[in-house]
Design goal:
Helix content: under 10%
Mean pLDDT: 89
Radius of gyration: 17 Å
Low-confidence stretches: 1-20
């Protein structure tokens, strides 16, 4: 399996802004070798949120290409959780640009621009208007509303994601809970480990081998850390086994800014 698309997605999902309440840095590794890194800034208050990140990947044989990208998401905070308002992504891989701009309101996509346009549309599952409602963008999806904190119920959920091209679910279920004692600027506190399954909905080519392998992969995990002073959990670690070896996203810095 070629991992370029998977690694690029991981890079963008683990993606600093001028002022932030929380700064988080991740390393990305494949078969134990570092192939990239990402940094995420989180501004979160009782009414609004803003997420901004940057990341880069290094070439790894024929599986991962050199690439870099930035991603930005804003929205409001409601009793039901995050309500995205905007999402922008700018990425470059092997000299080719990839951009997405979306506006959203009340959980529905109200506008979208992408470059390049999707190809082979006759082979793709059609994205309907219904698929664009009740969704969240892929960056906002790394911040989990969790009024019960590290309770197992904070794992047991389905996250409906639309990235401007593809609509998919990430189905989470509880696995374990543990404590981390970090030194220096590393995270210290409880961590919630969730099993994760990728479920394609639309926008994808169902006969594509990468999609089939991702949907069948039962090794994916997402680990969540507590956001200091807020009823939210944030991506701490993610992993999955690939035919080449383990792909991991690991938190290496967790710093509260104010």
């Amino acid at each position: 399996m070629r991992l370029k698309s998977i690694a690029a997605a991981v890079c963008l999902l683990t993606m600093p802004a001028q002022a932030s309440s929380l700064y988080v840095k991740y390393d990305i590794s494949l078969t134990g070798l570092k192939i990239g890194e990402g940094a995420l800034s989180v501004d979160l208050n009782d009414k609004t949120y803003r997420l901004h990140g940057k990341g880069n990947m290094a070439a790894f044989g024929n599986f991962v290409s050199d690439g870099s990208g930035s991603v930005h998401a804003t929205g409001s905070v409601s009793p039901a959780g995050l309500m995205p308002a905007s999402f922008t992504m700018q990425a470059e891989e092997e000299g080719k640009s990839n951009t997405v701009t979306m506006t959203m309101a009340k959980g529905a996509v109200t506008g979208r621009q992408i470059h390049p346009a999707q190809d082979r549309m006759n082979e793709r599952v059609k994205v309907t208007e219904a698929h664009k409602r009740g969704v969240i963008d892929p960056l906002s999806a790394v911040l989990f509303p969790a009024p019960r904190g590290l309770h197992r119920d904070s794992c047991n959920r389905t996250v409906a994601i639309y990235d401007g091209r593809d609509r998919y679910d990430v189905v989470l279920s509880y696995k374990a809970k543990y404590q981390m004692t970090g030194r220096g600027k590393r995270y210290s506190g409880g961590v919630l480990a969730c099993k994760a399954r990728y479920k394609p909905i639309s926008g994808h080519r169902p006969n594509r081998k990468t999609i089939q392998q991702l949907a069948a992969n039962k090794t994916m995990e997402v680990h969540l850390a507590e956001v200091p002073g807020k009823p939210y959990l944030l991506l701490y670690k993610a992993s999955l086994m690939t035919p080449v070896g383990p792909l991991n996203v690991q938190n290496v810095k967790f710093k509260k800014m104010n």
